[in-house]
Design the sequence.
């Protein structure tokens, strides 16, 4: 998707910029490893909630996924705002 293709280089650039000298390789690999880990963990969590509450709460897996996206976006914006304040 367009969002995923735009997110990859931006996240890698941020990781390289914030990495301590000598730790660039680890910082470049970490976002990819965490991203790949979400492909394993997220379906298990969403499947669990869908199986346990799917009948009583229609769309629960979409609501949980949407909530996780909102929390991640808020955390990213707060991190970026903190960096802007420190650089001022």
Sequence:
């Amino acid at each position: 998707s367009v969002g995923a293709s735009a997110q990859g280089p931006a996240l890698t650039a941020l990781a390289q910029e914030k990495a301590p000298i000598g730790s660039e390789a680890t910082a470049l690999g970490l976002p990819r490893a965490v991203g790949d880990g979400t492909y394993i963990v997220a379906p298990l969590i969403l499947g669990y909630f869908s199986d346990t509450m799917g009948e009583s709460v229609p769309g629960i897996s979409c609501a949980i996924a949407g909530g996780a996206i909102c929390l991640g976006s808020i955390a990213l914006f707060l991190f970026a705002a903190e960096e802007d304040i420190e650089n001022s």
In short: The chain has a mean pLDDT of 78. The helical segments are 2-18, 24-53, 60-87. The chain has three helices and no strands. Residues 24-53 form the longest helix (30 residues).
